């Protein structure tokens, strides 16, 4: 039997997922059943399933089995006005979010520099996770000047939107001043919260938002599942 048999099995399972034969949430047959189905050794089946899990097609749940992973592929444009709900809503995705925690901390050098503060000045760090159609797509931390936005986490929880929170502070519009993106391996806690295989990479998006007068509003570091989002950069786009 070919040493590359696992690649053939991987391609066959992936095609069934793409064709909708295996629907999101469907449970795969057991390893012995797959070995019998594809007339292959269990090692080949195990490797094929592991590779599909790394790519985000499958979710291996200890004690329960292997399931087809729901994978909303998000097209996320980054322009002058970048808004999560405005980007995802037109794609027919139900957007939800949850606060993972918040704390008042001393600004590190990077955060202080971006926000125009002295190093060590108080900032509010708010951790959140976003979901599309119930599937985690990103998680991250957003930093605000604690003097200027002392109760940002509470208002964010109550209003459900950063844009709406800013309005309560008299800021009716804001712009994306800078976006930097790089890929790296997922950390264990990130993989857990994103419900992805530990070997699947993540995209780290660092961003700075400013008010129309050029004053920094927020610095954010958001971790995206690389299997669930693709970015397009449109710096001159002026979304209304």
Q: SSE order in H/E notation?
A: HHHEEEHEHEEHHEHEEE
Low-confidence stretches: none
| Total domain modules | 2
Portion of residues in helices?
25-40%
The largest sheet is:
6 strands, antiparallel
Given the C-alpha coordinates, what overall shape results? elongated
- What is the count of helical runs? 8
Class inferred from helices and paired strands? alpha+beta
CATH homology superfamily name of the largest domain: Chorismate lyase-like
List the defining traits of the structure above.
240 residues; alpha+beta; Arc Repressor Mutant, subunit A; Chorismate lyase; six-stranded antiparallel β-sheet; two-stranded antiparallel ribbon; 10 strands; 28% helix; 35% strand
Question: Could you characterize the architecture of this molecule?
Answer:
By secondary structure, the chain is of the alpha+beta class. It has two domains: 5-68, Arc Repressor Mutant, subunit A (Orthogonal Bundle); 74-233, 3-Layer(aba) Sandwich (Chorismate lyase), CATH 3.40.1410. Helix content is 28%, strand content 35%. It contains eight helices and ten strands. The strands form three sheets. A six-stranded antiparallel sheet has the order 4-5-6-9-8-7, with helices on both faces. Strands 1-2 form a two-stranded antiparallel sheet. Helix 1 (5-18) crosses helix 3 (42-54) and helix 2 packs across helix 3. The longest helix has 14 residues, at 5-18. The mean pLDDT is 90.
């Amino acid at each position: 039997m070919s040493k590359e048999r696992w690649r053939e099995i991987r391609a066959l399972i992936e095609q069934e997922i793409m064709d909708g034969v295996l629907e999101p949430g469907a449970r795969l047959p057991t390893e012995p059943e797959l070995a019998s189905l594809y007339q292959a050794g269990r090692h080949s089946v195990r490797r094929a399933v592991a590779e599909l899990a790394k790519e985000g097609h499958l979710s291996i749940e200890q004690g329960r089995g292997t399931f087809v992973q729901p994978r909303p592929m998000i097209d996320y444009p980054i322009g002058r006005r970048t808004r999560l709900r405005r980007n995802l809503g037109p794609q027919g995705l139900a957007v939800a979010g949850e606060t993972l925690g918040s704390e008042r901390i001393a600004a590190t050098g990077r955060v202080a520099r971006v926000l125009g503060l002295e190093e060590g000045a108080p900032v509010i760090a708010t951790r959140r996770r976003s979901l599309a159609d119930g599937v985690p797509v990103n998680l991250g931390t957003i930093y605000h000047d604690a003097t200027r936005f002392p109760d940002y986490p509470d208002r964010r929880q109550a209003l459900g939107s950063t844009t709406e929170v800013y309005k309560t502070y008299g800021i009716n519009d804001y712009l994306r001043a800078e976006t930097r993106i790089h890929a790296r391996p997922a950390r264990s806690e990130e993989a857990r919260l994103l419900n992805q295989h530990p070997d699947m990479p993540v995209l780290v998006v660092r961003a700075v938002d400013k008010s129309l007068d050029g004053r920094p509003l927020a610095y954010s570091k958001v971790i995206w599942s690389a299997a669930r989002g693709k970015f397009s950069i449109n710096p001159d786009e002026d979304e209304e």
